[in-house]
Write a structure and sequence with these properties.
CATH class of the largest domain: Alpha Beta
Number of domains: 4
Radius of gyration: 31 Å
Order of helices and strands: HHEEEEEEEEEEEHEEHEHHEHEEH
Strand content: 25-35%
Strand order of the largest sheet: 14-13-15-16-17
Shape: elongated
CATH topology of the largest domain: Rossmann fold
Largest sheet: 5 strands, parallel
CATH superfamily of the largest domain: von Willebrand factor, type A domain
Number of helices: 8
Length: 385
């Protein structure tokens, strides 16, 4: 592609050649020819394209907002001659980060470290790098994609708060349910054998009776856990400063997740736009913060009206579960919805961000605060550290 300097030189060549020819002024024609020669040399220079292989790593790939994240770029010259200086362009959330590369000897390797924008919460997908080189006069530039996509998670800022009290002890042989994670030592039921099952778990008596291989389905028992629900619908945050209010709500949800994780019991986070799904292989607190990093308000979100369906796969009646619901300004009927969902939980807290007073619901701790900082103060008064 032609750079801005290249376009200027090309335009100058046209003007100089036309003016010199019309005025019969050889010196001006020579200046125009010099511009043309520069363009030809620049174009020929780009034919000697360097053979560079770039590998990008993000260290660390998960950081709290405001904490530095860095890209580590390893570039190998697979060609048989020294490569000229090049430029690598990194794109993060629409912002371009230009990384200069030095000349690299044949079969040589260089490593460059550069800062990535991490001021604001978000899940940022970094597309393939753009590796480019130019001619000495920077009249032309060629770019090609290098490497693959990477993901940078910038987690919300958190406040140090106490955990919502959980009831019930750990019990490795305790009660189980269909939602219990597989792989524990507590017996849940018998099921058909599936390829990959441990043959030592085959239940031979049932197998002989049914004529089908049956195995013991063991699971981790239901135990106290903390559910954190963030309202990502549009309505509670419609007032002035809605973006700021929503960011404060996300920080509240993240703070509650981190505080709950310190208790050592499972932490599950949901946003109201999410369909119920089983936990993935990530650590629970990491999965929760990753979810909150990418949380966004949406018009189509049903909000807390869908809280019953949202928690159906994680509710364990009588399991000593605690639940915290974070939303903005209260809509009619919200306290009743939360109170209804709270019947299956040992302790429930409803947090309103963006208002200073809200009538509570029976059996539900209610905290109203203008900001996440104010919330942390009021929460720690209610549940001391």
């Amino acid at each position: 592609m032609v750079t801005r300097a290249g376009a200027l030189v090309a335009g100058s060549a046209v003007v100089l050649l036309a003016a010199g020819t019309l005025a019969d002024y050889p010196e001006i024609v020579m200046l125009g020819m010099a511009c043309v020669a520069a363009l030809v040399v620049g174009a020929l220079w780009l034919l000697a394209r360097p053979k560079l292989v770039a590998v990008r790593r993000i260290v660390p790939d998960r950081v709290p907002a405001g904490v530095a994240a860095r890209g580590v770029l390893t570039v190998t010259n697979t060609g048989r001659r020294r490569s000229p200086p090049s430029l690598v362009v990194e794109t993060v959330a629409g912002r371009h980060v230009t990384v200069p590369l030095p000349s690299i000897a044949a079969h040589g390797v260089t490593e460059t470290v550069y800062a990535l924008p991490s001021e604001h919460r978000g899940r940022y997908v970094l597309p393939a790098l753009k590796i480019g080189h130019t001619d000495p006069l920077r009249l032309f530039r060629l770019e090609r994609a290098g490497g693959g996509e990477s993901v940078l998670y910038v987690h919300p800022r958190v406040h140090r708060i106490a955990a919502l009290p959980l009831g019930g002890p750990r019990d490795v042989e305790g009660p189980t349910s269909a939602a219990s994670p597989q792989g524990g030592v507590a017996f849940h039921s018998l099921r058909d054998y599936q390829p990959g099952d441990d043959r030592r778990r085959i239940h031979w008596r049932s197998t002989a009776r049914t004529g089908t291989l049956m195995v013991r389905h063991n699971a981790f028992p239901d135990e106290p856990r903390h559910l954190v629900v963030l309202d990502t619908s549009e309505e509670p945050y419609r007032d002035d400063g809605a973006d700021d209010t929503f960011e404060e709500a996300v920080q509240v949800a993240a703070s509650v997740c981190v505080a709950a994780d310190r208790t050592g019991f499972p932490v599950i986070c949901r946003t109201t736009e999410d369909a119920p799904r089983p936990p993935d292989g990530d650590e629970e607190i990491q999965a929760a913060l990753d979810l909150l990093a990418g949380a966004r308000r949406t018009e189509a979100d049903r909000g807390l009206s869908a809280i019953g369906d949202l928690l159906r796969d994680v509710a364990t009646p009588g399991g000593g579960t605690a639940m915290t619901v974070v939303t903005g300004r209260a809509a009619p009927g919200v306290p009743e919805l939360v109170r209804s969902a709270a019947e299956d939980h040992a302790a429930t807290c409803l947090v309103h961000i963006g208002q200073t007073a809200q009538e509570g619901a029976g059996g539900v701790f209610t905290i109203s605060a203008g900001t996440s900082t104010e919330f942390a103060v009021r929460w720690n008064r209610l549940f001391p550290l």
